[in-house]
Specification:
It is a single chain. This protein is an alpha/beta fold and 330 residues long. α5 links the parallel β3 and β4. The longest helix is centred in the N-terminal third of the chain and has 28 residues. The relative contact order is 0.15.
Length: 330
């Protein structure tokens, strides 16, 4: 960005003398005179009157000085703004995701990034994977955390960065009959320990605590059970319904909710069984599916044709580091 002629002209106007201006600027007087002549040719008018004691501004010079000072101030402000953004002193991070990502994965990332860069601002939207993908495509969001696959039109315009495999686990009210029968049928069969939660929540509700009685369930166990589920049409609901259908079971939904905590509370109140992410449970809680691992792949999505702003790139790195991917790539 070439602002030297404007800055030089301001010094000439302030000193009223070419020699003193050249000395202050650290250039030779012939070079300063040449710059001034070139500027006057470009503007098509003389900017200075020369006299024995120095120089003074012409009417055109006074008019030009006002705009030159504004131009330099605005350009310098623009340079400072860019340096602040590049240096992560300012910037806005716009991210969307489903209930699991927003509630359990992102809070520790936001906290860590805020500690490192307190000047950044955040716009976080909770929505289903399809809505998040559409918002990233439209430019409303810079990043999204979604369940794969993404099947919307123009999805090829999105880059997918695999993030983590999320196991969905069954939770049930205390004393659920099928849990007792299932435990007896398995004769104390031991299953693998629950996957480690990245962000364990506080104390468990009775609903989640009750599921510790057995490590597994089968789809036939809940064929006749009322189910408190996620909204129909959501990506996580499709994963659950498809797995049940493959086992020949059609789940009997009695309630559809968006919030994981709402599902846990309804299950705890005895409304029915439910499915939640392993990230919503403490280690070892919830029942894994004996008929085949019930899981989904979460991924970060972003526009293929747009480079991330420094603040958003730092946030993406924070998410990847949080699940161990960023560290493994180094």
């Amino acid at each position: 960005m070439e602002l030297s002629p404007l800055r030089y002209f301001r010094v000439i106007a302030a000193t009223g003398h070419l020699t003193r201006a050249a000395r202050q600027l650290g250039v030779t007087q012939p070079a300063l005179s040449a710059m001034l002549k070139k500027l006057e040719r470009e503007l098509g008018a003389p900017l200075l009157h020369r006299h024995g004691k120095g120089v003074e501004l012409t009417e055109a010079g006074r008019a030009f000085l006002h705009h030159a000072e504004q131009a330099v101030r605005h350009a310098e402000a623009g340079q400072r703004a860019v340096r602040e953004i590049v240096g992560l002193e300012t910037g806005t991070i716009r991210v969307g995701g489903g209930a699991t990502a927003i509630t359990y994965l992102l809070p520790p990332v936001v906290s860590a990034v805020r500690r490192a860069h307190p000047g950044l601002r955040y716009y976080i939207r909770e929505a289903g994977s399809t809505q998040v993908a559409l918002a990233v495509l439209s430019g409303e969001l810079d990043l999204g955390i979604v369940t794969l696959p993404i099947t919307i039109a123009e999805s090829d315009a999105l880059v997918r960065v695999p993030l983590v495999e999320d196991e969905l686990r069954l939770i049930a009210p205390p004393g659920q009959a099928f849990l007792k029968a299932s435990r007896a049928q398995r004769g104390g069969e031991e299953g693998r320990p629950g996957a480690r939660s990245l962000h364990p929540p506080p104390a468990l509700s009775p609903a989640t605590a009750a599921t510790n009685s057995s490590p597994f369930f089968r789809w036939k166990d809940i064929a006749d059970s009322p189910v408190v589920g996620f909204e129909g049409g959501s990506a996580v609901r499709d994963v659950i319904d498809s797995a049940a259908a493959n086992a020949g079971v059609t789940l009997k939904y009695v309630m559809e909710l968006r919030s994981i905590e709402s599902i846990k509370q309804m299950v705890s109140a005895g409304i029915g069984v439910g499915f939640v992410s392993r990230f919503a449970l403490a280690e070892g809680d919830g029942l894994a599916c004996k008929d085949g691992r019930l899981s989904r792949r979460l991924a970060i999505i972003k526009r293929r044709d747009r480079a991330l702003a420094p603040a958003t790139a730092a946030f993406e790195k924070g998410v990847l580091d949080h699940v161990g991917i960023g560290r493994s790539r180094r």
